[in-house]
Specification:
Layout: H1 2-9, E1 26-31, H2 41-45, E2 51-53, E3 59-61, H3 72-76, E4 82-87
Antiparallel strand pairs: 1-4, 2-3
Bound molecules: iron/sulfur cluster (SF4) (2 copies).
């Protein structure tokens, strides 16, 4: 009886469920321009090269969706004026562009 129930329920014969494709994580880069001294370090260190300077010399993100979340800019900013946050895909921030 016990053996039967094991045979009915148990099983190594089940096929593993197909793995879902991983969704790309998205990040938001926030600059505190009051603390920024426009040194350009973040722009030089960003491996994705998405940090550009605006007309006043402050950093600005060109394409937020390309940010890998490596936090290189946040860690190396001498004025602690960058924060990286993970964001939900439904709340995509397009840096002012739609
Ligand atoms: S590294 Fe920091 S202080 Fe330098 S430009 Fe970037 S945000 Fe400004
Ligand atoms: S977290 Fe990395 S990829 Fe994103 S803006 Fe900063 S340095 Fe560039």
């Amino acid at each position: 009886m016990v053996k039967e129930s094991i045979l009915k329920t148990g099983g190594t014969s089940k096929k593993p469920a197909a793995a879902k494709p991983k969704k790309k994580k998205l990040y938001t880069v926030i600059f505190f321009n009051k603390w920024c001294k426009s040194c350009g370090l973040c722009s030089a260190l960003c491996p994705k090269k998405i940090i550009k300077s605006d007309e006043l010399g402050f950093p600005a993100i060109e394409n937020m969706d390309r940010c890998s979340g490596c936090r290189f800019c946040e860690i190396h900013c001498p004025d602690f004026s960058i924060t990286i946050k993970e964001r939900h895909p439904r709340r995509r921030r397009t840096n002012g562009k739609h």
